[in-house]
Every structure is written in C-alpha cells, then in structure tokens.
Amino acid sequence: MPRAGAEGGKPCVFCEIVAHRAPAHIVYEDESTVAFLDIFPFTRGHLLVVSKRHGARLTDLPFEDQMALIRTLDEMCRRVERLAPDYNLALNAGAAAGQVVFHVHFHIIPRYGEANPFRASTRPRLSPTDAEALVGELSSS
Ligand code: 5GP
Ligand code: ZN
Q1: Inter-residue contact 16 to 2 (CB < 8 Å)
Q2: Whole-model pTM over 0.85
Q3: 36 CA closest ligand 1 atom index
Q4: In this prediction, what percent of the chain has a pLDDT beyond 90?
Q5: Which of 7, 100, 103, 123 maximizes ligand 1 atoms within 8 Å of its Cβ, making it the mutation to test the pocket?
Q6: HSE (side-chain half, CA atoms, 13 Å) at 53
Q7: Ligand 2 centroid distance, CA of 115 (Å)
Q8: Counting atoms of ligand 1 from 1, which one is nearest the CA of 22?
Q9: Long-range Cβ contact pairs of 137-140 (< 8 A, separation 24 or more)
Q10: Which atom in ligand 1 lies closest to the alpha carbon of residue 123?
Q11: Are 54 and 61 in contact (CB under 8 A)?
C-alpha cells in the first residue's frame, strides 16, 4: 500500500515505482519484491531491492516480507555476479546511517576494483543507454 514519504505530503517514491506510477528500470519483480537500477549509481549495475510493502526499515516488515527480500537478494546477487564477482550489499536504516528514502531497500553495488570502495564518490545520473543495456544484462535469471 503506497504511503506518504518522509517529507509528508509527497508520496513515497519507492511505493510509486512499485505501483508502476513512477518510471524505473526494473530488472525483477514478484508478488512481494521489486529490483531496479539506482538512478544515481555508485557503480555500473548498482541495484536497489525493495519490498512491495511499505515500511521504513527491515524491522517494520512482517517476517514473510523480510524472507521474500532475502530470496530476491539471492537471485539478484547471482545476476550481479555476471557483471562483477565482488559487490557490496548494504541497507541504511535511519538518517544517521545515510537513509534518504524511507522505504526499506537493499543496495547491491558491484565492485570493479576501486581502491577504496567506501570513499565518497561522484555519482553521475544513470544514462538511458546504459540503463537499457543493464536491463538486458540483468533481467534474465
Ligand atoms: P538510501 O540512502 O536511502 O539508502 O538510498 C536511496 C537510494 O535511492 C539512493 O542511492 C538514490 O540514488 C536512489 N533513488 C532515489 N530516488 C530514486 C528514484 O526515483 N529512482 C531510482 N531508481 N533510484 C532513486
Ligand atoms: Zn513506500
């Protein structure tokens, strides 16, 4: 069920993507979860895996939805391994942890040998051409 975002009046951006009211490069969807490309990727193929049910953080979700997320994470990690064998799996819970979208989501960030993967880096917006290529690379199991 879509919810208001943290800012109040505006709808939650990830609920809008889940409902297909906002555009996103979706590479996977089932009854409980959706995976799509991050609009400001840290690296090529940076994915977000979200629960269809709105909750700010993992502990807000019923157990079944948590398990559904883990199942989808397993599938998406396998696909990301086609791009890069190494990757970070991250979940930011709360503003102090860097969460800016308050709808629970995991990041899968492929790593291509950057010297320090946790150093802040510039994040150019996802290019439409590369997005199409990545959807092709990551949409099949
Ligand atoms: P957080 O810091 O909350 O863990 O991460 C939120 C992520 O969502 C960021 O990496 C940001 O680039 C991404 N993001 C924010 N708005 C949108 C959007 O409208 N579409 C997509 N695809 N990603 C978004
Ligand atoms: Zn939401």
Answers
A1: yes
A2: yes
A3: 22
A4: 84
A5: 100
A6: 16
A7: 34
A8: 19
A9: 137/45, 137/79, 137/82, 137/83, 138/27, 138/28, 138/45, 138/47, 138/76, 138/79, 138/80, 138/82, 138/83, 139/27, 139/28, 140/79
A10: 12
A11: no
Site residues for ligand 1, CB cut-off 6 Å: 13, 24, 36-40, 48, 92, 98-101
CA distances from 95 to 7, 19, 87, 92, 138 (A): 13, 25, 23, 8, 30
Q: Which two tokens stand for residue 56?
A: 């700010």
Give dist(CA 103, CA 31) in Å, integer. Answer: 17
Residue in the structure block whose two tokens are 């709360």: 94
Q: What is the pLDDT of residues 66-97, one digit of tens each?
A: 999 999 999 999 999 999 999 999 999 999 99
Q: Looking at the CA of 50, which ligand is closest?
A: 2
* Active-site residue list: 105
- Probe residue for ligand 1, chosen from 17, 21, 39 as the CB with the greatest number of ligand atoms within 8 Å: 39
* Collapsed DSSP state (helix, strand, coil) of residue 69: helix
